[in-house]
Sequence to fold (216 residues):
Amino acid sequence: MKFYNLLIKYRLWIGIVLLALGVYVNYVSSFWPSFPLYFIGVILIAGHFFFGPLRLIQEYMENGDMEGAEKIINSIHFPNLLYKPIRSVYFTLKGNIAMMKQDFDGAEKMMKKGLDLGMPMKEAEGASLLQMGMLAMQKNDLKQAEGYIRQALRKGLPDKENEAAAYLQMCSLMMNKREFRAAKDFFRKCKALKPTTPQLVEQIKQIEKYISRIPG
Fold:
């Protein structure tokens, strides 16, 4: 795995070196001895531009090193050359990083690009739609937020934590619209999932203090 990651990291330069060696072998000998060097070199260079180094981001994300992940993202200079599903992931990750920096306009722009390209899995699309809903809530566009979060729930979400977050946001939106019965229903669905994310647990505790007192 470590060797594979190193290959991904340096495959552009390895490919260029192999092509240069191929030219040299072709010059001093003939085409056929140089053909394997040309072939492998072209594959490595094409892989760099077609697939990109996004696989390397996983380790940084798992360690919470967003600065390292951002450096990998920023090393992609020609994102339009990426294979379409990978390009979608690229824009989604750009949106996530922008969101963490509280650049909500930039995050929305990037995540819309990712969604427009189509996500490789429905659950990934649902997660992106949920994030778009949360972005809309940050901008106080509650109507659009509700639309995105309902779409996220229809598409499906990758885990119970994301699903619970979606129900909790819907609960908040329904309370804002004074649709208290719907708010309570979404709150029950959220609690039934028993989320463990500290932020969600704290939000549930806060809402639980007064939701039983509201009508509906």
User: Anything to note?
Assistant: The chain has a mean pLDDT of 90.
